[in-house]
Amino acid sequence: MWDRLKAVHAKTKDRRIADLFDGSRVADFGIESDGLFFDFSKTNIDKDTYADLIALAAAQGVAEKRDAMFAGEKINETEERAVLHTALRNLDGGPIFVDGADVMPGVKATLAKMSDFANAVRSGAFQGQGGKITDVVNIGIGGSDLGPAMAYPALKPFAVGPRCHFVSNVDGADLADKLEGLDPETTLVLVASKTFTTMETMMNAQSALRWMEAKVKDPASQFAAISTAEKETAAFGIPAERVFGFEDWVGGRYSMWGPIGLSIMLAVGPEDFTDFLRGGQAMDRHFCEAPLEQNMPFALALTGIWHHQVCGYSTRAVLPYENRLLRLPAYLQQLEMESNGKSVSLSGDALDQAVGPIVWGEPGTNGQHAFYQLIHQGRQVVPCEFIVGAEGHEPHLAHHHRALLANCLAQSEALMMGRDFAAAEAMMAKKGYTGDALRAHAMQRVFSGNRPSTTLMYQKLTPFVLGQIIALYEHRVFVEGAVMGINSYDQWGVELGKELAQKLGPAVEEHGSTEGLHAGTAALVERAKAMRGA
Ligand SMILES: O=P(O)(O)OC[C@H]1O[C@H](O)[C@H](O)[C@@H](O)[C@@H]1O
């Protein structure tokens, strides 16, 4: 199948995407699900190619693997775990069994506990030493940070609760800058860590506790914990009533649907948080029920496979024309690159295909004034994923949103159509250029075009729509991983650096020895010490 797809690419790569537009292409390469619309017509995928891609997914048993995941089978084989973040949003679905026990009562109880706590904080029934909580500081990293840190600005129009701040980096600058100006007496700290052992989070949590201790008599009373590790949270001094637990079948980067989303619930309230879950559940249903040809996560994933594995484009840009999704690219970097940045199959065999494109991006229109030069005229092709709402939340600034939309649509058209030499030459000739100067100036203004993009469109960014978008990308990662035969749910690649950092810890201390370290590292340790005068 791969050979066939690569042969198709070799044969079709020079044709113009624009020429594929017949009367039905827009309809054929557009999928709608509960108001979310995915357009992949501006790619070099035609009906036959799409059929081949669907056949590839079918041959790899992706639909069966999907059903196994939703049924609670232990598809995360290297960690011997089920993969059930979907259970966290299975609001009105049936039971889901793991090891013979239905997980849904526990999921619902935790959601109710989160709602009660959020309501108490928001109403002032739960208070800090100085009265009603005004600020929430979420301390976590990776999957215990990026989801809520992305969703908080995304849902700003719905946030009427306490202000939220997100501390992740072990760099003291992060904690210091976020705590600056906050009143410890009215601040609630959430320590979010699935394992409750992550070095960065534990160090930040201890330092935040010291900060609170200076002013608050019972600092732990203004701390809550979000974790799967009950013993560790108790050892930290946080009583069980303020510990929000989840199970090992929720992966860190898939965890914002449960207690890791507590800061979001505190900001927008339980009702809007539930709407976010409903959006995720709506996408789950679509993913499970829509025929593969009309299935949005399949289409997004197969477009990704076509561009990365078949065409060989090594990166993809996520370009939200939605300023409030400014952290979405960072969120997707973890979701996609930590899930699928791998080189061996589930059975441990080296893969002969590249897996896991580099994901990057910035919100439009900012990116246009920064890196779009390369996207339009650089030699490498960067498939672009545009995300845009039909309207904004600011009726008095509706003309801004129309300008935003026009820019988004202009970019995808410009990428596809480009501008040929004749047009550039005519343009410069009009300006009076002739001869060599005309040629040189015209060449600068040539756009090869034929650069693929997709567009994801919705009416307005609501909690429901955000839920749909995040679940869509989660399932895209699943489909891409399943096609490649890898485990998208482990992350062994982050371990080696952590182990070495532990070994280096004592060496960077004042009188620490560099003995036994690699010479290249030892030299840098010594230099850093000399620089700080140690
Ligand atoms: O939630 P925690 O246990 O603190 O883990 C935080 C993060 O650190 C790890 O290194 C993993 O790479 C991430 O997948 C995880 O989300």
If you had to describe this structure to a student in words, what would you say it looks like?
This protein is α/β, with parallel strands linked by helices. The chain folds into three domains: 1-80 and 276-492, Glucose-6-phosphate isomerase like protein, domain 1 (Rossmann fold, 3-Layer(aba) Sandwich); 85-274, Rossmann fold; 494-532, Phosphoglucose isomerase, C-terminal domain (Orthogonal Bundle), CATH 1.10.1390. The chain is built from 20 helices and 15 strands. The strands form four sheets. Strands 1-2-15-14-12-13 form a six-stranded mixed beta sheet, with helices on both faces. The protein has a five-stranded parallel beta sheet with strand order 8-7-9-10-11, with helices on both faces. It has a two-stranded antiparallel ribbon with strand order 3-4. α6 (146-154) runs antiparallel to α13, α13 packs parallel to α18 (463-484) and α16 crosses α17. It is globular and about 80 Å long. The termini are far apart. The structure holds 6-O-phosphono-alpha-D-glucopyranose.
Characteristics:
15 strands, Phosphoglucose isomerase, C-terminal domain, alpha/beta, 46% helix, binds 6-O-phosphono-alpha-D-glucopyranose, Rossmann fold, carbohydrate derivative binding, six-stranded mixed sheet, 3 domains, SIS_dom_sf, monosaccharide binding, globular, five-stranded parallel sheet, 534 residues, Glucose-6-phosphate isomerase, single chain, G6P_Isomerase
